[in-house]
UniProtKB/TrEMBL annotation:
InterPro entries referenced in this protein's UniProt entry, alphabetically: Ac_transferase_dom_sf, Acyl_transferase_dom, Malonyl_transacylase_ACP-bd, PKS_DH_N, PKS_mFAS_DH, PKS_NRPS_Biosynth_Enz
Name this polypeptide is given: PKS/mFAS DH domain-containing protein
Keyword Lipid biosynthesis: no
Cited PANTHER family: FATTY ACID SYNTHASE, SI:DKEY-61P9.11
UniProt key word Hydrolase: no
Biological processes annotated in GO: fatty acid biosynthetic process
């Protein structure tokens, strides 16, 4: 596939004219961003010609109409989302412009290639002064968990989301819901402790309540200088049944590495 910063009309008249049987428009992302697909050799030739005038031409490998055409009489490929054939042109721009009320858009893809196109389409609607909130699921060469958590944070602090929440639920008898949101802090909460607590004090509060290790059990409070733990291990209980898996000649043995792990965790 080849991504072009050109309109659909320009592509049809200047590039595809005469070679429609080899290359076609795969996706119309925005009024000025089109992706074409087709014969690999023809795509390479088009890229070489356009790279002189359009240095930002981007090529990606994918399967579209020209790949399916040779066996189109036998193969019937339909989208599981909309039920239409997957070898049809995908008018992404039409779908975005049609939904004028959308102010939060999620792009589920390995890389956010449509973010610029989405902003361009939303500007054409002239319905909102600010750009929509575009949430990413993944981004190339970036940590996946960090990307998802960043999108979640942007979503939860978006005024559009809170406005929609207040308008669809009877929370408070207020005429102006924005007033309630304006009083909500937009900065992240600082979760660092505001006082110093010694290790002994922390142990005294938590030792008899929380089981910190599946085998060590609960740390005991006593006069000994070294840590003391109390645990009841029963290999017939679900939480300890894994101990039966280590056998030598049908004899259940506690592994040496497990002793080392217990010693490390108990310190």
């Amino acid at each position: 596939m080849l991504a072009l910063s050109m309109s659909e009309e320009e592509v049809e008249n200047k590039i595809l004219k005469g070679i429609e049987h080899l290359v076609c428009i795969a996706v119309v992302n925005s009024p000025h961003r089109v992706t074409i697909s087709g014969d690999e050799k023809t795509i390479d030739e088009i890229q070489q010609v356009l790279s002189i005038s359009y240095p930002n031409v981007f090529k990606a490998c994918v399967h579209q109409k020209q790949i399916f055409n040779p066996i189109c009489a036998q193969a019937k490929c339909y989208s599981s989302v909309i039920g239409d054939k997957i070898n049809d042109n995908i008018p992404v721009d039409t779908a975005i412009i049609k939904d004028e009320a959308a102010n939060v858009i999620r792009e589920s893809s390995p890389h956010p290639v449509l973010a610029t196109s989405i902003r361009e389409c939303c500007k054409l609607t002239n319905q909102q002064q600010s750009s929509p909130l575009i949430l990413l699921t993944l981004k190339r060469k970036e940590d996946e968990q960090k990307t998802l958590l960043t999108s979640l944070a942007q979503f939860t602090t978006s005024s559009h989301v809170w406005q929609q929440y207040f308008h669809t639920r009877q929370i408070l008898p207020m005429k102006n819901h924005a007033e309630y949101f304006d009083n909500f802090p937009l900065y992240k909460f600082h979760l660092s402790p505001c006082w110093y607590e010694s290790k002994g004090s922390s142990i005294q509060r938590l030792a008899n309540r929380i089981q910190t290790h599946p085998l060590l059990g609960i740390r005991q409070l006593n006069e000994q200088t070294s840590a003391t733990w109390k645990s009841l291990i029963n290999i017939n209980l679900p939480q300890h049944v894994f101990l039966k898996d280590h056998k030598i000649q049908d004899v259940i043995l506690f592994p040496a590495v497990a002793y080392l792990e217990l010693a490390t965790a108990a310190c």
